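Two quick folds needed for the group meeting slides. Do the first one here.
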Amino acid sequence: MKILVVSLLRLGDIIQQEPLLRGLREKHPDAEIHVLLNKQFASIERLLSGVVDRYFTFDRESLQRGLGEAEFNILWSYNQLEALVNQLNGQNYDQVLNFTHNKLSAYLIGAVTSPDKRGLYQDNGKFQGLENRWLRYFNDRFSGTQKSLFHYIELLGNSFDIPTPKKALVQTESKKKSKVVLFQCLTSDVKKNWGLDNFQQLKRTIENGLVDYKVSILGASFEREQLSKVFADDDLVICDLVEAKAHLQNAALLVTGDTSIKHLAAQIGTPVVEIAIGSSDPSKTSAFTDASRILTSAVPCAPCNHSQACTQKSHLCADDLSVDQVFAAVWDQLGGEKPKKASQVRDFERAVWSLYLNRGHQEIEPLYLQAAQKFNQETSNLPEILVESKKKAQQLNSWLERAERALPSRESLLAKKAVQSSELAELIMVGQDILRSKQDDAGYFQNFLESLVGRFSHPVQIYDRVHQALEEVRELIEIRNNLTRYLEFLSTEGAYYATGIGQLSIGGFEETRAGLQRTDEQSVLQRRSRELETFE
């Protein structure tokens, strides 16, 4: 079996995809896996040894020059692209996976011959490949500043059915003995820089407060001049990616912004303190590891858009994170302190959305109990979460009912050539109320809001788009209510067992010398059957 993975992204994104490639290798151990990437990132081959069998490169910069510069023949870029496509088609791929998900990759995959294309691709003038709900969520949530409940790796792993467990902390002997803390101070975007002065002060704080530790500054050759303005030459570790990987393997900790180095550290299992500011959105692209601690700003403008400069008079999100806060995170990481669990309400919403997104290709009913049991095992305050869940459900239902009442009928819009803004005033008012409330963090109404601002050629399209978005909301609320009922049942059952009632046999009373106890495996299965019947 031959598989082509298309990854026409930036360096950090490609490094971040390492768990996906390893998961693909695990799923297809005998397959020949090829990767197509941008030529300027061909050096990544040295970091992914043993995972990928062959690399092909896409020379995007030369192709763009060929289209825009006078010294190139007008057909040069076309001929280069045709040669690449012919080379790929000569491989006779059994499967092609699009990890990139932009129009360029879609057109390119459209030209590659394969019986099994997954992810976005172009065919007969139309974009295909978004039948999978996970892929649609990924396509909707990873452009701009839309919120996502799932990490980039989680989304693509679920989209392509690739196992992607998070990297666990690797405590090798060298790391146990190491007293080196590495800083990666500079990022590819000035908005994501915490500031060299802050890093300099943090270095002094660490070395004064933790006298056994030495801080070194990682940097590429083109960053040397800027780093030298603040740090001594002896503190600098100027290196390429392969050398950086070796330094990370021996480091006790990495402190970094949103960089490719943090993904490299996640691969290795080196603990990370990540400073996520500016356009960095840790919910989407943080270091994919359990050995990380993420610091974010509380300012309302963050995270901002990648493509725009900072709109504030000063760098508010950087100013919002003090050196003491970052040092506290460093202290906890070096001391092995377990990070506080993120919002368990967010975990509940993730469970709801997972059930919804899996519904496209699985029977959902058997998944309810599994999801409820998993969530129940991982939460410490289930009763409070259930109270919050019911309260949020009332708000969601209220918005849904108002939107459905405000939506004009399809028949009335079908008869119109144009629609007056007054006819949609109440519908728009609902959307404004949702936005102003800032209560839809999970994005139940995101597609509804986008349907209100989309372009349309005929008024009936308003109904079709809004109605479809509201049907999604209704399905999500139904799943949410069902999951809540399962959790309520588990919560009640837990209370019974806590008071000793759980020691009673489900199949009847059985006297034993040890007292009353539950019956054998058959009774447990009968009980499970009753559990399922309760919620049908």
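Then this one, please, same format:
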Amino acid sequence: MKKTLLFLYFVSSILLLNAQNYTLKDIVEGRFTAKDIRQMESSADGMHYYQMDPGNTAVIKFSYTTGDAVDTLFNTRRARECTFDTFQGFLVSPDENRVLVYREKEQIYRHSFKATYYYHDVRRNLVRKLTQNPSKQMIPTFSPDGKMLAYVSENNIWLAKFDFDTESQVTKDGETNKVINGATDWVYEEEFATTRLMEFSPDSKLLAFVRSDESQVRQYQFQTFNQELYPGFYTYKYPKPGEKNSSVELRVFDIDARTTRKMDVPLDLDGYIPRITFTGNAEELVAMTLNRNQNRFDMFFVNPRTTVAKLILREENKYYVDAELLNGIHFLPNRFTYVSEKEGYSHIYIYGYTGTLQKKLTTGPFDVTNLLAVDAQTQTVFYEAADESPLRRNIYRVNIDKGQPQKLSVRQGYNNASFSSNGKFFINRFSDTHTPTLITVHDATGKELRVLEDNKQAAALWTSAQFPNKEFISIPAADGITQLNGWIIKPRNFDASKKYPVVMIQYSGPNSQQVLDRFGADWHYALANEGFLVVSVDGRGTGARGEEFRKQTYMNLGIKESDDQASAARYLATLPYIDGSRIGIWGWSYGGYNVLMSMSRGNGVFKAGVAIAPVTDWRFYDTVYTERFMRTPQQNASGYTAGSAVALASQLQGKLLLIHGTTDDNVHFQNAIEYSRALIASGKHFDMFYFPDKDHFISGENSRLYLYEKVIEFYRKNL
């Protein structure tokens, strides 16, 4: 008997060791993460690209065709009067006569930052500080002729003229938390994904910009501790649903005349200008606007000298117009591309400058997920599509006049491409669930020129660690009709005769996707090492399945999403190898919100849940995102109440771990506080953990490892 026990102990130890070829710490510290390449910036002609050297001491010009270095535009060791050894980033003028580099980068919000900039005169090999102004600079923008640079400092626009070595102040009314010129406020940056609304005209004679007046937007303030004896506060403007937004207007600065005109763009007082640009004509300034409900998009051609605006295109949608589609507008001589969902799927259309529809360029029961580039010379449009499956992406090109799409990507999985100027070359990033990212260079015909990163080392580590396979599955939605996409990860030594606990990983937000045929060495693989099955299901409202599928949660966020997670859990409980009494759910941000909704509306199907940085009531979140899907509380009071986790707190069933960062500028800590208040009032016991002075991402200083250790221990204890 003793020998048998020893033998069984030996075998179980071997199995345990086999299951521990990777650890949570390995995953969090990036041991299996696929390597990327250094940032590549296209030259104006699209034939070359620029990169920083590995030591961040030089800007080097390379050929797309060969990959050979053809020039060094800037080198800190060789440039005259250069007072620094390294820099953090760069920008090259269109004529390559100047290189702008920055140091002392200071992050503002998710994307925006300010820094100290220097410019290098390539012909003189001379470095100068951009300005003697002690304040740092933002969003530097070269004029098309390369002779000027506009930038923002302390919410005002400045203009530097290189030939004269002068700078002048374009605006003088900029003020923190009041008026912003050229740059954007918090909500524009976060929800319209833009930090710059400032553009030169093609002839370099005019500078167009949006002026944002946020003086009527209410301030949000949170405490910052930072190990100080007397903690401080951070204050900024954050508009919440139904409250006042920034008021915006489009202005044009005439550089020679030094005069500024306000453009007569028809815009509701609470409307948005998420994009501005010029066509190839300096007399045609393009203003793209959305009404506050975001269900009407207007595009105007504005004469910057007469200030008169002409409506070129209007689209109205019974739900909303997705602002991301505006990135698909590209101007060619006398026509432009436009991506619309108006026929049920997002497709590319060609319009003339009079606003007349010329043709529909793509067609079929699938979504064009990104318009990537346009080559005006060959009249070719390059795009990404979920045509084979919502789980995958392919890259295509199509000639506007011939209209026969050609697939450029050759590997089945997830392809993502970034094009050089004018679409001459592209960098393709391919992966699937078991293949780390393969990064390759291609010409415009799709021909592979070379491999930039094969990630063979990551692939070998992944294989040797024996990560379990991710299996794609289909699960019925709560309506009993729709089939939902999902995946399941089983422990390596899975035994179908046993009953396993399950953790469901989800996000569930509008147009999002977690179920993709794409590589990722994610933390939840560590759950499989603990003996859990891990499942993810993309419910109704998620992306790449047409407009009706992704917009059916409109005006009622949280209902169908939570119904589908609960329904999926009940379906999983019917499988012979799953213990239906031990099903948990996990989510971050919108996913955290849906954890709370699912545990409150799921009739006890979830035994335990972890909600990280969740929205708990949509009245607490920002205007642009929330009102896009819910309109205002004044317009949709019942939807806000039905979708409030706070209002449903008394119905929560199961063990809950609530996690939040105290300085989250996106989903405020207020959400966790008010939800906790509601749980306490309802006598609902729960666990809560906060991360001091951490934002929405809860990263740095061992935070991620600590967080996931706590999450796994919670599931280990409760499932």
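Slide caption for protein two: The longest strand covers residues 578-588.
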